Amino acid sequence: xxxxxxxxxxxxxxxxxxxxxxxxxxxxxxxxxxxxxxxxxxxxxxxxxxxxxxxxxxxxxxxxxxxxxxxxxxxxxxxxxxxxxxxxxxxxxxxxxxxxxxxxxxxxxxxxxxxxxxxxxxxxxxxxxxxxxxxxxxxxxxxxxxxxxxxxxxxxxxxxxxxxxxxxxxxxxxxxxxxxxxxxxxxxxxxxxxxxxxxxxxxxxxxxxxxxxxxxxxxxxxxxxxxxxxxxxxxxxxxxxxxxxxxxxxxxxxxxxxxxxxxxxxxxxxxxxxxxxxxxxxxxxxxxxxxxxxxxxxxxxxxxxxxxxxxxxxxxxxxxxxxxxxxxxxxxxxxxxxxxxxxxxxxxxxxxxxxxxxxxxxxxxxxxxxxxxxxxxxxxxxxxxxxxxxxxxxxxxxxxxxxxxxxxxxxxxxxxxxxxxxxxxxxxxxxxxxxxxxxxxxxxxxxxxxxxxxxxxxxxxxxxxxxxxxxxxxxxxxxxxxxxxxxx
Amino acid sequence: xxxxxxxxxxxxxxxxxxxxxxxxxxxxxxxxxxxxxxxxxxxxxxxxxxxxxxxxxxxxxxxxxxxxxxxxxxxxxxxxxxxxxxxxxxxxxxxxxxxxxxxxxxxxxxxxxxxxxxxxxxxxxxxxxxxxxxxxxxxxxxxxxxxxxxxxxxxxxxxxxxxxxxxxxxxxxxxxxxxxxxxxxxxxxxxxxxxxxxxxxxxxxxxxxxxxxxxxxxxxxxxxxxxxxxxxxxxxxxxxxxxxxxxxxxxxxxxxxxxxxxxxxxxxxxxxxxxxxxxxxxxxxxxxxxxxxxxxxxxxxxxxxxxxxxxxxxxxxxxxxxxxxxxxxxxxxxxxxxxxxxxxxxxxxxxxxxxxxxxxxxxxxxxxxxxxxxxxxxxxxxxxxxxxxxxxxxxxxxxxxxxxxxxxxxxxxxxxxxxxxxx
Lengths: 488, 423
Ligand SMILES: Cc1cc2nc3c(=O)[nH]c(=O)nc-3n(C[C@H](O)[C@H](O)[C@@H](O)COP(=O)(O)OP(=O)(O)OC[C@H]3O[C@@H](n4cnc5c(N)ncnc54)[C@H](O)[C@@H]3O)c2cc1C
Ligand SMILES: Cc1cc2nc3c(=O)[nH]c(=O)nc-3n(C[C@H](O)[C@H](O)[C@H](O)COP(=O)(O)OP(=O)(O)OC[C@H]3O[C@@H](n4cnc5c(N)ncnc54)[C@H](O)[C@@H]3O)c2cc1C
Prior knowledge:
- The complex is a heterodimer.
- Chain A is an alpha+beta fold.
- Chain A has helices at residues 9-18, 28-32, 55-68, 120-127, 146-152, 159-162, 196-200, 234-246, 259-269, 289-305, 317-337, 353-367, 395-411, 430-433, 436-449, 464-468, 478-481, and strands spanning 24-25, 48-50, 72-75, 92-95, 102-106, 111-114, 132-133, 169-175, 181-185, 209-216, 218-219, 223-231, 253-258, 279-287, 310-313, 340-343, 346-347, 371-376, 381-382, 384-388.
- The radius of gyration of chain A is 23 Å and the shape is globular.
- Helices cover 27% and strands 22% of the residues of chain B.
- The two termini of chain B are 23 Å apart.
- Residues 37-38, 73-81, 84-85, 96, 116, 138-140, 144-145, 147-149, 151-152, 154-156, 204-205, 209-210, 419-420, 456, 477, 480, 485-488 of chain A line the site of one flavin-adenine dinucleotide.
């Protein structure tokens, strides 16, 4: 909640001049819609919400912020899971929701130029008539915006083979914290001088606001082959992943689910998963047809070799969609087997998957809580779901376990976050992964871009204020409750 | 001019001490293969030679990652990875001359494989750097998926030794393809552009595609031994032409595969090919580290690699010309190149990246032409003693660049001159 007496009418008028009066929202009730993102345990009502209509208005709004020392937070669709778009008390939220034009799709050079409020899936929709698509595919892709993806360097199931947002963004037009409008990156992967675009990508809205993005488009693969395989143990499924890698195959996706996750997903969407099996893998290959066929045979043999108890090969696009529906439903579905849950997002080196899952199970048993696992096995990105009941007073224990799991990932040589970012949620865990000097250098970089410290302050890097606070109880995102999006 | 000391640290601690114990300006030097790229280094008080910082720190074959000290020649790293059937999917021309991992990152270099895998910025997943005040900082890590904190690697990529010293680098690896084949088509640049459109517009998934001013378009396909023949035939049919250069010659054994992938003959060693531009005298490492490369005795091996060897030597440039690296939208590339008085050209028709040799006097206008097309350009090499502008018009974010430099190296110790007149 904002505590001070407000920004004052002079500042508000300045914003109204920069935009249009009706695009500056001051009504606390309406502002409340912006009080949190997908991490609903943290809430702060912003002083004002600004709804610019173009890049010039974004720049004008940021100039007002710079002039009056007003902290600002950019907001896309608000699906972030780490509190990146959490407003700052006494500050404004700048929503990019109205900048949603697809400015250009160029099938010859295979790229698209879009405004930040365009959703991830809309880019692919615009590219599809040309046989092209935009590769990074977060599970929230039908609602999350490309501006948010750029800020979070978002990933998805297909990032093992195709890379993350940073590998697909050629350039960004950015409003810097002083209100100037610049372009980072260029039309090609080639660069002259240090890669500022690469620094901006994944900076979680702390270095500026992007108002136009040029992305690479890829040709839709000629062939896609998908299988669902059951295994007698997590270890056996893990060995399959290792052997696929050892065979020199880079699948488009390799996803793993454990008993609990399978049970929840199957109950929810009846996608044809086998209830009761210890582990299931979804493996997808894509590419030229000849290549895909050869490697798919190899993958099937590897599955057999490791005691696969059931191998289901998608025989049609519908069957493929069903396999993915099961996988993607798992998160929301966990709500059916537990009143509450936390989603964690840690990464371990792929070779330590079995070890980390074992330890997580042990930690869960010790805490007296169940942990369901659904994850990107190909790149070691875990999403342990810590199940608990707030009504039964388990919240604190669950929160602690979830945090310990993230830190366990770091201990095993991994990362605190694989795709959801640090935001407000994990800023206080950053010292577990980085030394004081590491963090100090990041702070220096940030200060070069934002000397006044007005651009999404308090996120990513630990601050005493943030680390002293405790978040409120976790609540599902309204979009999830409405069944619009699912967690992954 | 004061005398320059050269310091050659052998580990992270001595590297840090070297930075702390020296006063004044420092030139960071790797193998020297790009010593004259970008702006000329102003006279410096000390040269920090990274070639003592070598060796793999950890290679995790199952995770397909490797961490390596920055002075390690990439060629040597590839040799160590080859028995595991893995490599860094990166094939810049100067690797053959012994370019170091750190130098390759610092110069934002890349080769034809960038069409699929990008430049090193896309393959580096972690980094340890030493700043001018002796601060040692790390970002990224050993997992390919990691979005914790700022990606400092990107900042150092293309920094030409001006922001910090790269001490250690963690790289993402890929499997060495079982087989590779190159289709060569003799054609003009305009015809090549048409072929490129066909290739990119279909399901052929080329691994590399480059036209050179020898009048040849090279299209490389890579994949499994069993599927490649059919893919190549299909591509050839679609193009209605093409000389198949190396389909039969490729063996599918580890190290051999790797070399082929890099466009190097086997039994190689390490020195320059006859006809290659020798790296600057001053930067040549001690001769015992540079056995002369023997050309493979296997005739077919030599033949199959020839076009890519020739390509690499064009990229390396010629001593009497300036070499400019440019990047523009791929479809604009032929028109931009047509406007430049080029002596030689290599053009990535899928990437939009070209390396051209020009008379030094034509470089300023070339920068302007590329800039007008919305592209970027960097000077790579210049004839000894020639004054040639290294950079075109500054980017719109130049103020951020200067601010970053001021934060990380407030006294301007590293690489003075490299970014003149930008910063
Ligand atoms: C032993 C030796 C002595 C030299 N003495 C002099 C001298 O007295 N006077 C003089 O003018 N030149 C000298 N040079 C060359 C000069 O230092 C080069 O211009 C050097 O700065 C670039 O060498 P090189 O790194 O290009 O090789 P590359 O490895 O190709 O490096 C290219 C670029 O990358 C940067 N770079 C390389 N490695 C790293 C790293 N690990 N971290 C960050 N940046 C990196 C370099 O600074 C350079 O800009 C010397 C070189 C060597 C090897
Ligand atoms: C059900 C569910 C599933 C998810 N699955 C995935 C997944 O598979 N992979 C994944 O990576 N993420 C996933 N996420 C997380 C989230 O969707 C992504 O992080 C997404 O990129 C956020 O986009 P957004 O538009 O909602 O951004 P917001 O939540 O509005 O903002 C996120 C951050 O971006 C900044 N920002 C937004 N727009 C801009 C801009 N124009 N310029 C600068 N900064 C800006 C904000 O300040 C904030 O720091 C999931 C979330 C949910 C709820």
